Amino acid sequence: MAPKIVDKEAKRADITLAAADVFAEKGFAGASVDDIARAAGVSKGSLYGYFKNKEDIFYATFEAYQTELIGQCEQAMAAESSMQGKLTACLMVTVVSLEQHIVLFPLTMELWAAASSGPARDRFSQIMARLYQEFRAMTAGLIEAGKASGEFRQDADANAVAVWLVGGLDGLMLQFWFDRSLDVKQLTEHFLAMVLRGIGRDTQEQS
After folding, report:
1. CA–CA separation, 147 vs 141, rounded Å?
2. Cα–Cα distance between 115 and 63 in angstroms, integer?
3. Exposed, middle or buried, 1 (CB in 10 Å: 0-12/13-18/19+)?
4. How far is CA 176 from the centre of its chain?
5. Considering only CA atoms, which of 194, 183, 180, 173 is closest in space to residue 88?
6. What does the angle CA 5 – CA 7 – CA 8 come to, to the nearest 5 degrees?
7. Nearest residue to 145 (alpha-carbon basis) of 90, 71, 190
8. Residue 102 carries which DSSP code?
9. CA geometry: angle at 82 spanning 159 and 141, to 5°?
10. What are the structural domains of the chain?
11. d(CA 25, CA 59)
C-alpha cells in the first residue's frame, strides 16, 4: 500500500483555522496547545510538526486572516476604475469582513497586549507594526494615485489620511465590540464620503 500523502500547507491551514476558534473562545493566555490540537483533530506531537509553539500558531491566525483580507481588497479594487472607487471598495470590504469576524476581535486586543509587555513583546510588536504599515501603504498609495490622476487635491496629505482611516477602523470596531447596535457599514460610508469630499478636487482647482 502506498504511503498516504499529506498536503502540509492544507493541514497547516486547517490547524490555523481551528486555532482561531480556540483563541476566540479562550484567549491567547487561556488557550493551550492541547486545546488547539484537539480542535484540529491532530495529536500534540503532530501539531509541533507544523508550529514551534503557541506563539507561532497565534501569529499564523493573524497572518492567514490578513492575507485573506488583502486578497479580498485587491479583488474589490480590480473591479473599480477610479481611485475613489478603489479606496471606497477596499475600505468597505475591510469593514464588512471585520464585522463578519467580530468574534475574533478580542484576538486583536490580545495581540495589542502581547505587543506591550511579556516575553513575546518584540515579536508581536513587529507583527502589529507590519500589519499597520501594509494597510497604511495600500491606502496612501491609492490616494497618491488619485492625486496623479487628478481625482484628489494635490495638497492632500496621503499619509495623514491613511493613518487616520486605518486608526479609525480600529476605533470603530472596538466600539462595535461593546455596542452591536452600531451600523458600522453605514457609519463608514458616511465618514468616507466626507473624507473624499475633503480631498477631492473642487471646481476652481479643476478649471
Report:
1. 10
2. 15
3. exposed
4. 16
5. 194
6. 120
7. 90
8. G
9. 25
10. 59-206 (1.10.357.10)
11. 16
Which single residue is written with the C-alpha cell 452600531?
Answer: 182
Cell of 100: 463578519
The set of cell numbers assigned to 102 is 467580530
pLDDT of residue 2: 44
Looking at every residue in the chain, the average pLDDT score rounds to 87
Percent of the chain with pLDDT over 70: 92
Give the three-class secondary structure for 32. Answer: coil
Q: Three cell numbers at 154?
A: 494635490
pTM: 0.78
Taking CA atoms, 207 is separated from 46, 157, 201, in Å, by: 67, 22, 10
CA distance 22 to 31: 6
* Cell digits of residue 203: 471646481
pLDDT of residue 6: 58
Kindly report the length of the chain.
207
Strand partners, 152: 200
User: Could you tell me which of 70, 68, 79, 71 has the C-alpha nearest to residue 134?
Assistant: 70
